[in-house]
């Protein structure tokens, strides 16, 4: 893959493709194949149907029809490349040995895998020796269950387009629906094949057996000093660390006791109705039953919590032996962005730079940037980022910088001289900081320029109009910024690949937002690099730990557990949050408690970013049974994956890789094909493959589908957080973010993928895992009883009603026991999880704030979408922040989400004043019931206190706040004036009761 080859833009459906160079006149793309016969040098020719002639359907070795006929009639009847016997094609005369062959077209049955076990032994041998090994040298011996594919070691994919002498328009796109020859005219694949075929097979098999721990076990350690190291390499790459029984067992005991006490409490409430306030009593009982049900669902994932520990040294000993090729698996990294004005290019640039500088072999990393907004600002900022990376990456690796995002590194208030003993470090650091400041100036200048769009649209440097000027109607675009050719740093070392991708968009097509963009990245990466694993990140989530990919590989490449792991999820950590985390942005209760519990069952849920996927799992393959690779039901692969032969072939390569001699131009042309807007029509993309459509929280739905197939996932929490992102810091943005998550859960609950009824057929989803998924989809509905329960104290105070009957001594003991069990459960939960009590309390507060606002709106909008078909469009949460620390924390942004909690606050505060004044008027006998009412009213007010502070603001007291507080104060003074009349206060004895409010 060659960098700086120009922007490739085109539309497969419209048969358009152009290459736009930075300072040259753009030229229409002509012949993309340039295929000639490798035997005689003549052109390959076409079939009667107009498709390119293919002699060997096993390896695609380019041979013209006359040479094919001569080889069958006079020669060995075998393909020169893979030594597979030529099959008779339609129109070819029979020769000796064809009697047992059926007269069928091999092309039509190229993906049939019914007769895999009856294939010739020489085909199996060719597959074993020549299969794709992109980044991995050991081969598995179970390839026979898949059809043979074009195979050999991977070759760098160039971005250059060979322009042939054929006139433009003569080459059509119809051949994309059939297998084409992957070999360019100037390079003989057979020569490289013969060089690798002569030797090395036994050595590679011995190496594979050594990695599996099946070779050399009887060698005396004293005879070989390296045996101790080899023994260490055979050890597991990770281990479970169960929570200490002294911490988890008391927690489980209290849970059981709380269930028993809760059952008695609910029985008492149902058996003792309050007749003079029956409506209020019934509402409270229904709410309490739902709260109990919700709490029980929330406890199932926490029953078997575990921690995990990785061994990065063993990973290196096993797959990075000195003097041998690096055997770590390649990783394709996806970064998605939409609007560069809400997701600043400088933030995206820092994420990309941290990826390019990560501690991983550079030839194993490919970074793909999805620009779903087709913005020229994003394109130009990535060009600047690629240039700055040539200086930043060697600096990070030379001095082992952490973190490797420059903005975070230079702003981190730490001793940067710690552990840096190189005398040149200070000088180079100062120089690099100056370089970064200049880089920021250039990027910010691009942002300032992009604010005002020219009337004629954006123009590129060579005068060509930017293809994405119309964001809703533009061709697909691909630009290789960095690669093996042209992708070197200032010291001449190779840099990872950096590829810009903007999928095609046309009116009338459903593009499925982020899920559709991620699926487009899956396909284009499969065509260009096809790494077996993929890491997806949001544009604002940078690598805080340069060894994050190695941490994931300790699970995915572990011979014991790796084959059944579909993804490794990392916790989300954030920068720029105030010390007290007023709005629970860190969400540590979920990430440090619930996710640990899920890891002990079948694995954590997929939460959108910071997740390393197995590509085969996203393709809908089932997990392997025993030592064999995953399988898929036998069907027409093109109907499942789409009409791209190269992409379909790549889906069968478990170890990844691309055809070694494929024409770079044909690969890029195919990449444009797979990101076309109509490619997914009549396929299973978004239904069974890739990111699943049907919900704005496509992450939860995608992980659920993989767990239903029987895959398991892993939760990895390294000591140094793997990724860090930007959290919405003010109240309004935080509530809108929670609204999006909650609405996605409601959509899943009402969809066919609801965990309540989906996934029972295979029986692969464990029951505790299913209940956990049920909890993730029903939690927004808790907003309805929560809203009612938060309103009840104020109603009771204002009406003088009480929803509790006369409480006996025994009943009071059960009430006290219930409160003690709730308190003890929380304390023990914090003890085994390591979450601080402040973090737990902030989570409890925001559970109420979000429950009566965002969750409530999500339920209403979800029901409107299901019943009335009214859809809701969401805007991207802004990732920008003020220069001042926590400057946006106190910024007030009015939204309708603030109405319900504001109303609840006002009526509860008014109710408190009304209740106290009423108790003063009615005498001491009314103070007893009043305390119960005040307890629940103050419970509501205390939980909404962070919302109250956010509403009041600190620096921005807007007119809206003035109006709200004016209404509140007027209500309080009016109630005080009515309830506490001066005449009433002077009245003594029984006249107080007789007078009351009627005085």
Topology:
Layout: E1 7-11, E2 16-20, E3 27-28, H1 65-74, H2 121-130, H3 189-197, H4 201-212, H5 227-234, E4 238-242, H6 245-271, H7 278-299, E5 306-310, H8 312-319, E6 331-337, H9 345-356, E7 365-371, H10 376-399, H11 406-411, H12 425-450, E8 476-482, E9 497-502, H13 513-528, E10 533-538, E11 542-543, H14 548-556, E12 565-569, E13 573-575, H15 588-599, E14 611-614, H16 615-618, H17 637-641, H18 645-651, H19 664-674, H20 698-708, E15 712-715, E16 723-726, H21 731-750, H22 767-778, H23 783-799, H24 809-833, H25 837-851, H26 854-868, H27 899-922, H28 927-943, H29 945-952, H30 959-979, H31 982-986, H32 991-995
Helix pairs in contact: 5-8, 6-7, 6-24, 7-23, 9-10, 10-12, 13-18, 13-19, 21-22, 21-26, 23-27, 23-28, 27-28, 27-30
Describe the structure concisely for a colleague.
This protein has 999 residues and is an alpha/beta fold. The protein has 32 helices and 16 strands. The model is unreliable at 23-34, 101-202, 212-223, 955-959 and 977-999 (pLDDT under 50).
How would you describe this structure to a colleague?
Its cofactor is Zn(2+); Mn(2+). By secondary structure, the chain is an alpha/beta fold. 43% of the residues lie in helices and 8% in strands. The strands form 3 sheets. An 11-stranded mixed beta sheet has the order 3-2-1-8-9-7-6-10-14-12-15, sandwiched between helices. Strands 11-16-13 form a 3-stranded mixed beta sheet. It has a two-stranded antiparallel sheet with strand order 4-5. α9 (345-356) links the parallel β6 (331-337) and β7 (365-371). It is elongated and about 115 Å long. The N and C termini lie far apart (90 Å).
């Amino acid at each position: 893959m060659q960098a700086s080859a120009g922007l490739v833009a085109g539309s497969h459906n419209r048969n358009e493709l152009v290459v736009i160079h930075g300072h040259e006149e753009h030229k229409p793309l002509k012949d993309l194949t340039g295929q000639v016969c490798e035997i005689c040098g003549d052109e390959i020719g076409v079939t009667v149907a107009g498709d390119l002639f293919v002699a060997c359907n096993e390896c695609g070795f380019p041979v013209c029809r006359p040479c094919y006929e001569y080889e069958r009639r006079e020669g060995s009847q075998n393909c020169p490349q893979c030594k597979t016997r030529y099959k008779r094609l339609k129109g070819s005369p029979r020769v000796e040995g064809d009697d047992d062959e059926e007269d069928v077209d091999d092309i039509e049955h190229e993906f049939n895998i019914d007769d895999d076990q009856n294939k010739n032994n020489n085909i199996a041998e060719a597959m074993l020796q020549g299969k794709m090994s992109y980044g991995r040298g050991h081969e598995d011996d179970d390839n026979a269950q898949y059809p043979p594919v074009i195979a050999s070691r991977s070759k760098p994919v160039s971005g250059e387009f060979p322009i042939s002498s054929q006139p433009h328009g003569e080459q059509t796109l119809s051949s994309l629906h059939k297998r084409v020859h992957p070999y360019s005219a100037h390079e003989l694949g057979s020569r490289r094949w013969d060089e690798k075929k002569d030797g090395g097979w036994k050595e590679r098999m011995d190496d594979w057996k050594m990695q599996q721990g099946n070779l050399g076990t009887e060698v005396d350690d004293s005879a070989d000093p390296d045996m101790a190291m080899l023994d260490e390499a055979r050890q597991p790459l990770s281990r479970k660390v169960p929570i200490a029984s002294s911490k988890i067992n008391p927690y489980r005991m209290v849970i059981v006791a709380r269930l028993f006490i809760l059952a008695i409490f609910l029985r008492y409430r149902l058996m003792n109705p309050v007749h003079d306030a029956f409506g209020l009593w019934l509402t409270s009982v229904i709410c309490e039953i739902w709260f109990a049900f919700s709490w029980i669902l929330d406890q199932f994932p926490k029953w078997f919590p575990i921690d995990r520990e990785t061994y990065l040294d063993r990973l290196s000993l096993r797959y990075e032996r000195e003097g041998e090729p690096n055997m770590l698996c390649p990783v394709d990294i996806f970064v998605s962005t939409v609007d560069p004005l809400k997701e600043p290019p400088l933030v995206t640039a820092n994420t990309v730079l941290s990826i390019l500088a990560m501690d991983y072999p550079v030839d194993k990393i490919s970074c793909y940037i999805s620009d779903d907004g087709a913005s020229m600002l994003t394109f130009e900022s990535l060009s600047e980022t690629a240039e700055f990376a040539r200086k930043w990456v060697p600096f990070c690796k030379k001095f082992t910088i952490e973190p490797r995002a420059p903005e975070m590194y230079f702003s981190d208030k730490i001793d940067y001289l710690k552990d840096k003993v190189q005398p040149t470090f200070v000088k180079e650091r100062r120089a690099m900081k100056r370089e970064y400041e200049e880089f920021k100036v250039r990027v910010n200048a691009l942002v300032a320029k992009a604010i005002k769009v020219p009337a004629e649209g954006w123009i590129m440097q060579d005068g060509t109009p930017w293809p994405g000027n119309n964001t809703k109607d533009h061709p697909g675009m691909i630009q290789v910024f960095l690669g093996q050719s042209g992708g070197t740093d200032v010291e001449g070392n190779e840099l990872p690949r950096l590829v810009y991708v903007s999928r095609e968009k046309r009116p009338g097509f459903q593009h499925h937002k982020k899920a559709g963009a991620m699926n487009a990245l899956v396909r284009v990466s499969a065509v260009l690099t096809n790494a077996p694993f993929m890491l997806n990140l949001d544009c604002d989530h940078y690598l805080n730990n340069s060894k994050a990919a190695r941490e994931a590989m300790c699970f995915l490449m572990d011979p014991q557990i790796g084959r059944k792991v579909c993804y490794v999820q990392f916790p989300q950590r954030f920068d720029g949050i105030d010390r007290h985390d007023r709005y629970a942005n860190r969400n540590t209760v979920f990430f440090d408690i619930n996710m640990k519990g899920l890891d002990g069952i079948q694995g954590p849920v997929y939460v959108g970013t910071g997740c390393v996927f197995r590509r085969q799992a996203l393709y809908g393959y089932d997990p392997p049974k025993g030592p064999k690779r995953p399988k898929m039901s036998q069907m027409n692969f093109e109907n499942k994956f789409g009409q791209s032969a190269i992409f379909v072939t790549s889906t069968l390569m478990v170890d990844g890789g691309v055809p070694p001699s494929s024409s770079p131009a044909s690969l890029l042309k195919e990449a444009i094909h797979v990101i076309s807007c109509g490619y997914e029509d009549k396929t299973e993309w978004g239904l069974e493959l890739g990111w699943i459509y049907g919900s704005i929280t496509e992450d939860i739905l995608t992980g659920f589908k993989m767990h239903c197939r029987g895959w398991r996932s892993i939760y990895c929490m390294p000591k140094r957080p793997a990724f860090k992102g930007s959290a919405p810091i003010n109240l309004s943005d935080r509530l809108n973010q929670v609204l999006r998550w909650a609405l996605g859960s409601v959509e899943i609950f009402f969809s066919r993928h609801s965990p309540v009824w989906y996934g029972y057929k295979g029986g692969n989803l464990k029951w505790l895992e299913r209940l956990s998924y049920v909890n993730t989809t029903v939690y927004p509905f808790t907003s309805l009883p929560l809203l009612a329960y938060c309103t009840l104290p104020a109603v009771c105070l204002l009406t003088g009603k009480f929803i509790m009957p006369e409480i006996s001594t025994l009943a009071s003991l059960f009430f006290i026991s219930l409160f003690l069990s709730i308190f003890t459960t929380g304390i023990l939960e914090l003890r085994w999880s390591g979450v601080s009590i402040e973090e737990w309390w902030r989570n409890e507060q925001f559970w109420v704030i979000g429950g009566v606002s965002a969750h409530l709106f999500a339920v209403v909008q979800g029901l409107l979408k299901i019943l009335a078909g009214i859809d809701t469009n969401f805007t991207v949460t802004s990732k920008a922040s003020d220069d001042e620390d926590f400057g946006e924390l106190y910024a007030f942004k009015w939204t309708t989400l603030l109405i319900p909690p504001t109303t609840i606050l006002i009526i509860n505060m008014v109710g408190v004043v009304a209740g106290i004044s009423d108790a003063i008027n009615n005498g001491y006998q009314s103070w007893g019931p009043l305390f119960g009412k005040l307890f629940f009213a103050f419970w509501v007010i205390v939980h909404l206190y962070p919302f109250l502070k956010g509403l009041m603001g600190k620096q921005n007291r807007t007119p809206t706040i003035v109006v709200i507080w004016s209404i509140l104060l007027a209500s309080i003074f009016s109630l005080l004036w009515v309830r506490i009349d001066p005449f009433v206060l002077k009245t003594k004895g029984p006249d107080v009761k007789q007078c009351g409010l009627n005085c």
